[in-house]
Amino acid sequence: MPENKKEKSGKKSADPASLEVLDAVKDNEDLDSAWNRYDDMQPQCEFGQDGICCRICNMGPCRIIPGKSNSGVCGATADTIAARNLVRMIAAGAAAHSDHGRDVVHTLIEAIEGEDPDYEVKDYKKLKKLARDFGVDEGNGKKDQLATNVADKSLAEFGRQKGVLTLTERAPDERYELWEEEGLLPRGVDREIVETMHRTHMGVDTDYRHILKQGLRCALSDGWGGTMIATDVQDVLFGTPEPLQARVNLGVLEEDSVNLIVHGHEPALSEVFVEAARDPDLIEFANDRGAENINVAGICCTANEILMRHGIPVAGNFLQQELAIMTGMVELMMVDVQCIMPALSKTVKNFHTDLVTTSPKAKFPGVEHKEFSEESALKTAKDIVKKGIENFENRDREEQTRPEQKEVLVGGFSSESVFDFLGGTYRSTYRPLNDAIIDGRLLGAAGVVGCNNPDTCHDYNHTELAKELIKNDVLVVSTGCSAIADGKAGLMKPEVAFEMAGEGLEEICRAVGIPPVLHLGSCVDNSRILTLLSNMVAEGGLGNDISELPVAGAAPEWMSEKAVSIGFYFVASGVYTLLNKPFPVTGSENVMDFLTEDIEDLVGGKFAFEEDPKKAAGLIIDHIKVKREELGLKQAMYAKNG
Ligand code: CUV
Ligand code: SF4
């Protein structure tokens, strides 16, 4: 494998397990990875990077070259083109999350109406809460009827034609009113995505501010719509996560067991896959084939989903999907949707690993497809497990790379369990959390989320940012690949607070036994952060709106369109949000100014871009301090470096 020529930080990854695998395969000419494909891609197209290339109609493609071609053939300016491209990213990201949400509702319907269903309602309390929020009559309290009504209401939100999305009412009143005044209240989920696509068709919306406002509304339909429905209905079906211990990193792969990896985003199949792997007949079948056990591990957000609810080990995050296969230890990788590198179909050709696609929405050329449907979920899962077991004998033990690293983490936090932990189980309340912020033991809180990207050292930004924040008494909540990075770095062990957290945060972690970085789940679980923020406002003492809270968001290694949508629904909800690299709009000064300045007057949140994680932490801390000052709170009690 050619050396990485553009290593900004000197290393491909901050994770020793990942480096070990990359090193082990470096002489294999047939193998490539995201890192060296990234190198091969250099220099990347600057028009694309700056967001001033337009391919929306067939008079183009057009690109803006100041002084030569100042606008597209149609006359579209850099501002229009950059804004259009960006909101199309939001639409795609919102579509991905929301389509996931819709599918979860279909799984709920199968659980209620299916004949001998493989699913059931596991969290009745959450179902009732959702019913209340949807204004569904709890009626005679029959579980199935209630679930049917909730499913109907949820499904209707996607194609909603009148009114606005119901769950936006979970936001603080001031926030809701602001959205209403500014015309930002999202109507149907599908409608906002469709309207975004319409407005960005050739010759429709030209005013970059107007285009970006639609982007905000579309993102809100994701965060307070599709994504929130996904999380809540998943909790109803599979149970609301509760804190539990698990292991993370490539070291979770086992020498003597059949290693099966689930990768992607949707828990519907992976939930039953976990069940299938515990089937005594299949375990016996594995034993007969010489394996001690069946070991299921996850990658990306599928991993986070089954980690949160079952303590299933996590093999790694986004940039480790190829590496897991390169260990030579994986019998089978099952994938569903989102963030699955097309490269996998080539990677597996060099190893014994079977790759199986399962979603009706995603096939890979030359890769076996075992289609998942709710009606036959367990049967499909068992077939796939069996296939993996049959492949165990083909593992080449001479060619294996076995990284040792498997860190312990405590995960499984939710907006409810943060309640229980900080409030004491005798009385669920956010009071202690708010009080800790008010009296300065906590400076504030930050949500650090999102992907990996080979354009920066893998995991480095996530972990450095988190470390710097906790050192300064900022409680960190994390989701997605960022959470996996922090878990691998040992930041999700309660005892790490004693070494790394500031005194105030340490005191809290010690008192309630939580780590200083809380794993809140998958990317759709970013809705848990929105709920948490709303609960903090509702508890009182920290202002009347999310934008007044001493909090911030960050996605310091972002790559996906979903991350763009997430960033926008955080900002649209009033949160200061920090990214490492700017959105691809740098070719328009106006759009950049709008996102980093003017947007704050509109929604109370704004974007900041900073590649250095230490400086990024500084910006977040400064922001939190300003918010504290505005609230008239005294500055932090202890923070080691002020
Ligand atoms: Ni959405 S966080 S790479 S898998 S979106 Fe995928 Fe979760 Fe980023 Fe990671
Ligand atoms: Fe060019 Fe305008 Fe067509 Fe875009 S929409 S490709 S800028 S002519």
Oligomeric state of this protein: single chain
State the CATH topology of the largest domain.
Rossmann fold
| Top CATH class of the largest domain | Alpha Beta
Give Rg in angstroms: 24 Å
The hetero molecules present are:
Fe(4)-Ni(1)-S(4) cluster, oxidized, iron/sulfur cluster
Principal-axes shape call? globular
* Fraction of residues in β-strands: 5-15%
Spans of at least 5 consecutive residues with low confidence: 1-8
Taking the alpha carbons of the first and last residues, their distance comes to 45 Å
Helix content: 40-55%
Structure, explained:
The protein is of the alpha/beta class and 642 residues long. It has four domains: 52 residues, no CATH class; 123 residues, Substrate Binding Domain Of Dnak, Chain:A, Domain 2 (Up-down Bundle), CATH 1.20.1270; 145 residues, Rossmann fold, CATH 3.40.50.2030; 222 residues, Rossmann fold, CATH 3.40.50.2030. Strand 5, helix 12 and strand 6 form a beta-alpha-beta unit. It is globular.
